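The freezer alarm interrupted the setup, so I double-checked each line after restarting. Inputs confirmed:
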Amino acid sequence: MAKKSFRETLREWDEGNFDFTMKTAGIPLPENEDGKEKEGSEWSRTPHLRTAGSEIKAFSKLYPVFAGLLLFAVITFLLLVIVEMPPFNSPDTPANRSEVTWRYIRSGLSETGAVNIVAGVILDYRAFDTLGESHVLFAATVAVMILMLAKREEEEPEEELSILRNDLILQNTAKVLVPFLLMFGAYIILNGHLGPGGGFSGGAVLGGALILYSSAFHPGKLQKILNMKSYRIIVLLALSFYSGMKCYSFFSGANGLETIFGTGTPGAILSAGLILPLNIAVGLVVACTMYGFYAIFTRGRI
Amino acid sequence: MNFCLNFPLFLIVGSLLFSVISSVLPKKAARVLTLFLTLAGALLNLVIAVYCQRTGGSFTYLMGHYPHPWGNELRIGFVEALFSSVFSAVLFLTVVGGRTTLEKRVAREKGQFYYCMCDLVQAALLVLVYTNDLFTGYVFIEICTIASCGILMIRENGRTILAAVRYMIFSLIGSGLFLLGVIFLYAVTGHLLMPNLRESIAALVSGQVYRLPLLASLCLITIGLSIKSGLFPFHIWMADTYGNAIPASSGILSGLISKGYIFFLIKIIFDVFGTEVFYASGIHNVVFALGALGILIGSVSAIRENNILRMSAFSSAAQIGYIFMGLGLSPALGMEAALFHIIAHAVTKPALFLAAGYLSDSMGSAKKFRNLSGAGYVNPAAGVFFSFEAFSMIGLPLTAGFISKYLFGIAAFESTHNKMIPTLLVLAVSTVLNTAYFARTVLRIYSKNKEPGKFMRVAVKEQKNYMVSAAVFTALNILFGVLAYPLIDMLAVGLTVF
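Predicted 3D structure, all chains:
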């Protein structure tokens, strides 16, 4: 390639005809015939051409080496940190001795009314985090809908699922298991303030049951009850109820007002103030999210 | 307690609620909700800012019935309120201005999801600015990550999806490192609320215990958030992402979401570690160096680009570099300059992306410079506003960009000697480089078109929304550029109670 004067190069750059990457690779820029670029043409053209230059080749060879060195350095640093960290499982760690943990354990029951301290922490002491967390799930479903939601007129891919659907073993297992799974999920959600469990774990069990049923049988059966419309209504109601209740609770807390939700008798099913209804709301959202992911990923709609 | 201190709660829960409601509404109604919400955010936060400025203090607001260290809290002060107000206002203006391209490029049945994601972005930004709890910050960083991927992916085009995946990978690595840092902090202190963390960390530092875990967590949090905001070695996602997204998304991402993460980092430096610990750790030197390198390399990459959107993206990388350079410079003046630059860039960049998007649309979706000749005549409004925002990015007087460069200069003179010369040099060189690529763009859009009459001149009627929003952006820019000093004084006072 003939060496151009600085002035010419500058003009080329100004007109947008000078490509530095091409220059590095030693390849002249292909001319466009009609002056108008086609969508995607550059995409197919450049990646392999751009790696043709010798510098870029050397870079791609050295890249794994440097990446390995960096990884090694980071791992060594983190291992050194671990050595200095408080020992795991010891009662003397700062986290175990802190006033926060003690208050949760000692007065969690009397302040929140929840026998399950974890439920008390996530739905009362630190309820704002959990409010955010359930909206993370909501945001994730919306993002999946943006990506995968099929247009209405498209037919669902019947062939891939038909093999599964006619599986006798799967269908009989599902017939036996699904009622129990649904019952167990509901139990975990409703029992969240009394024992291990809560909205997140119970919702996951419910979602699993729905996925099992829908993969064993024709999805049309489940769609009669759980379709896009009912899905939206459930999520809308659950999350608005959650936001509304928590807005009331935060507002009353910050302004020093009494709430109308008492803690009740610890151990009774209707106790612990808002924790039970909030667990139900979270459980519904989690179940819908799990089933929604499955449905959108397999057939592009719920 | 004054009633206006409840506004952040209403705005945050309102944004979450509106996002859920928007997802089931038709597109038009969802848009009205988003516009209402962001406008309310701008105005109500301004009221809080005025109130906090009058009383001269900052307030904690219980999110529940339990004070720190047991329950979640918000912390409301002048700086926080001012930034939320600016963020909401910019979100409002970007959605108003980007509406035309938005509705052209987004599939009809998915339009409401875009507004739903915008509501979530507003909620996440408000929480990142107001929270007094490190872990709440993490939860809303997650929301921010997912929502920003959503607003990128909404344009269904192979390259956009690829860019969004790349952005998501970077962003998730950032979140992961941040979470690891928070876990380390919790393990050595047993707290998650900022005031308690600050006390415990001060005790640990004076007692010389757990020095390595503290350093590690500071590193991880700084690196995590700087990956997410696009500091120099981690800026490579920007070009593809901003080059392929719809202009409104690029504006929201570069003008707001990156800034939200940086503001949260500044908040962590002040409220969790304390400026003394941060500026004794030596990390500020690394941040300073990366920021300065980012400015230079970002500007050089912008000069090399032949695509107007990718050029603006690299210019964003350079601007992020300025903010981090100020952050590494000094806790007082450098931080003020960084904070002012966040505002200045937030009112400039979205407008620049919108203008670039309209220019490229008016030339039949051309993005390369060689096809953009004369775009300024085809779409006069976008041309004028693009030129103005470009002048602000270069830092001509009367614009906000000038004031922020001036503040960086002042901060450099007041800092230690080994940073003064590099800062001034970087400022000088980067201004020349900025001028090179922006002057080239402005000259290109006002040069003679090779095929006159091929593209119809865009009528005013077609882009009323855009013109209103760009005019307000310009007015805000001039306002911050002319009346900067009262604002800077208030920022300085606000930083003392930050």
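Quick read of the result. The mean pLDDT of chain A is 79.
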